[in-house]
Design brief:
Number of domains of chain A: 2
Distance between the termini of chain B: 26 Å
Radius of gyration of chain A: 23 Å
CATH topology of the largest domain in chain A: Rossmann fold
Strand order of the largest sheet of chain A: 6-7-8-3-9-10
InterPro entries (chain A): AAA+_ATPase, ABC_transporter-like_ATP-bd, ABC_transporter-like_CS, ABC_transpr_MalK-like, ABC_transpr_MalK/UgpC-like, Mo/tungstate-bd_C_term_dom, NA-bd_OB-fold, P-loop_NTPase
Shape of chain B: globular
Membrane topology (chain A): Peripheral membrane protein
Strand content of chain B: under 5%
Largest sheet of chain A: 6 strands, mixed
Strand content of chain A: 25-35%
Protein name (chain A): Sugar ABC transporter ATP-binding protein
Order of helices and strands of chain A: EEEHEEEHHHEHEHEEHHEEEEEEEEE
Number of helices of chain A: 8
Shape of chain A: globular
Organism (chain A): Manganibacter manganicus
Number of domains of chain B: 2
CATH class of the largest domain in chain B: Mainly Alpha
Distance between the termini of chain A: 39 Å
GO molecular function, one term (chain A): ATP hydrolysis activity
Number of helices of chain B: 13
Structural class of chain A: alpha+beta
Oligomer: heterodimer
Radius of gyration of chain B: 23 Å
Number of strands of chain A: 19
CATH class of the largest domain in chain A: Alpha Beta
Structural class of chain B: mainly alpha
CATH superfamily of the largest domain in chain A: P-loop containing nucleotide triphosphate hydrolases
Order of helices and strands of chain B: HHHHHHHHHHHHH
Helix content of chain A: 25-40%
Chain lengths: 332, 279
């Protein structure tokens, strides 16, 4: 079991309010990702759940028990950090076993769990090494292994992939996804990378300036963002926002995703000049300066040749535009 | 060294400056050591010459070892230095950990207060310290010296160590907390090993003034059984006659223990630097 409930959690550091009232329910076995720009409070929220920071007010419940005054080691959680945070003086095996040893687990049980976890993460050849003798990816696997052996109710990940290079990041991401499927444990994951959020999450929590902007499944956030912030944050390249008045619409802002625009050399809704072209291989990103819509991004699948300053016509896909009111909320 | 970053004239110039500095720094020490092996006449006739077959004389060392009680003085100096050093490093590191790790009201003020001692010489308070020691019956004990030197060494130790402790990964300490380590275990097992190079630096800076000090032993512990080496060497400096052989021999001997301690710490220092970054 490993459900998590957060009730009106607030946190201030002196005069700065970092969390302004967070309510969240996570059910057993769910993979929840906190995503948001840096400084939005996502790491602080994770640290409050872990017990590394005390909430200024509000309650944290794990499996229905209020753990607001429980020290981190007694909360039944395990945490994986961005900087790995392995104990430099201990071998891989002792790094993984230290938490269990502190909790007075029998040695045979510790050995059993370490061998199970190291088999799962293919760490067996490295058990006798120290962290300094491992590569970045191996270190992060050890850090994950250290969390697994504790058999926690709740796994907490604090940007675990941020220090890895791009190729390793994808591999480790897949490993984390497989781990979740195998252990069926509840996981809370913090990242600023929306790709990680989209690929891993059962449920994404978008945070901004200490508040929850929207909670939902990845595709739900992509297809029906609650407001301009979520619309701009989920999806890459970012959604185009066009002033409604420029297009003769009654709403404040019109949003169109770059992948929901088509271009044509002869006719279309808006006329524009090419500012810049990015060839990504599978995709091409066009940056166009349109007379009606201003500067917009278009994402085309496959290769597309366009010279800078060339004239093109852009047409939005019908039914794929979003409308936002004065307060930034989505209108239906 | 790669060819792109070195040129012969630059290398020569850099080495010339470094060698000149080394010579200037070592010259007085060398003069003391070579003259300690010469006869009294030779010290005055040719102070810069190396001891030769005619001038070689161990009379200074013989005097030092026969007069006074130099083994005891050495022991006293060593006890005072090592115990003070241990206390400075222990309390300094603990205070630095508290200042760098915990948020509490008055943290910055406390840090400034503890660092203030770097700017105010402890000798200004000599009279008050003497009164305090008389009142508490600690005059002519090594405890008096240890207490004073611990107080003298703490400000710099706290200042340097708290800066280094801020650099220790916060994630590492948090990982320890999640694994159920106590704050003491986190301090002794995780943080201290990582700041060992800076501890060695602090140890060297703390140790040398303590070993060389004449002021406080003279005032607080001038009794025969609590004399330190520097105070003991004063035995041979008279108002009218000075036994230079003995003074130089005593000083040469006094260099040895502090040199050994320095070598121990500097090895730590180098090992700390070469063992690589924390990450």
């Amino acid at each position: 079991m490993g459900s998590l409930k957060i009730e009106n959690v607030k946190k201030s550091f002196g005069p700065v309010d970092v969390l302004k009232g967070i309510d969240l329910d996570v059910s057993d076995g769910e993979f929840v990702v906190f995503v948001g720009p840096s400084g939005c409070g996502k790491s602080t929220l994770l640290r409050v759940i872990a017990g590394l920071e005390d909430a200024s007010s509000g309650r944290v419940l794990i499996d229905g028990d209020d753990v607001s005054t429980t020290p981190p080691a007694k909360r039944g959680i395990a945490m994986v950090f961005q900087t790995y945070a392995l104990y430099p003086h201990l071998t891989v095996k002792n790094n993984m076993g230290l938490g269990l040893k502190q909790a007075a687990t029998p040695a045979a049980e510790i050995d059993r769990r370490i061998s199970a976890a190291s088999a799962m993460l293919s760490l067996e050849p490295y058990l006798a090494r120290r962290p300094a003798e491992l590569s970045g990816g191996q270190r992060q696997r050890v850090a994950i292994g250290r969390a697994v052996v504790r058999e926690p109710k709740l796994f907490l990940f604090d940007e675990p992939l941020s220090n890895l290079d791009a190729a390793l990041r994808v591999n480790t991401r897949i490993e984390i996804a497989q781990l979740h499927r195998r252990l069926k444990a509840t996981m809370v994951y913090v990242t600023h990378d929306q790709v990680e959020a989209m690929t891993l999450a059962d449920k994404i929590v978008v945070l901004n300036a200490g508040r929850i902007e929207q909670i939902g499944a990845p595709m739900e956030l992509y297809n029906s963002p609650a407001n301009e912030f979520v619309a701009g944050f989920i999806g890459s390249p970012k959604m185009n926002f066009i002033d409604g008045a420029r297009l003769g619409e009654s709403v404040k802002t019109i949003g169109i995703r770059p992948e929901h625009l088509t271009v044509d050399t002869k006719k279309g809704a808006w006329k524009g000049t090419v500012v810049h072209v990015e060839h990504l291989g599978a995709d091409t990103n066009l940056y166009l300066d349109c007379e009606q819509a201003g500067l917009i991004t278009v994402r085309l699948f496959g290769a597309f040749e366009a010279a800078p300053d060339a004239m093109l016509y852009v047409t939005p896909t019908p039914g794929k535009t979003y409308r936002f009111g004065e307060d930034g909320k989505a209108l239906t | 060294m790669s060819r792109a970053t070195s040129s012969l004239p630059r290398t020569v110039a850099a080495h010339a400056v470094l060698i000149a500095y080394t010579v200037i720094a070592l010259f007085p020490v060398l003069v003391i050591v070579i003259n300690s092996f010469k006869s009294r006449g030779a010290i005055f006739r040719t102070p810069l010459a190396l001891p030769g077959p005619q001038t070689f004389d161990l009379i200074g060392y013989a005097t030092v070892l026969s007069q006074g009680n130099f083994p005891l003085y050495f022991w006293n100096s060593l006890v005072v230095t090592v115990v003070s050093l241990f206390l400075v490093l222990l309390f300094g590191a603990m205070a630095a950990f508290a200042l760098s790790e915990y948020r509490f009201r008055g943290n910055t003020l406390m840090g400034l207060y503890l660092a203030l001692g770097i700017m105010i010489p402890i000798r200004l308070g000599t009279v008050a310290i003497l009164q305090l020691m008389v009142a508490s019956g600690l005059v002519n004990t090594l405890t008096a010296l240890i207490l004073v030197y611990t107080a003298q060494g703490l400000p710099l130790a706290i200042f340097i160590l708290s800066e280094f402790m801020k650099l220790v990964s916060a994630d590492l300490k948090d990982a320890g907390r999640i694994d159920g380590l106590s704050e003491y275990t986190i301090f002794f097992r995780l943080v201290l090993p990582l700041v060992r190079p800076s501890m060695a630096t602090v140890a060297v800076f703390t140790m040398i003034p303590i070993w060389n000090d004449l002021w406080f032993p003279l005032i607080l512990a001038p009794a025969e059984n609590t004399k330190t080496v520097t105070l003991g060497a004063q035995l041979f400096l008279g108002q009218f006659v000075t036994n230079w052989n003995a003074v130089l021999a005593a000083l040469s001997l006094a260099i040895l223990p502090v040199l050994i301690l320095y070598l121990i710490f500097s090895r730590q220092l180098i090992r700390g630097i070469t063992s690589g970054a924390v990450k």
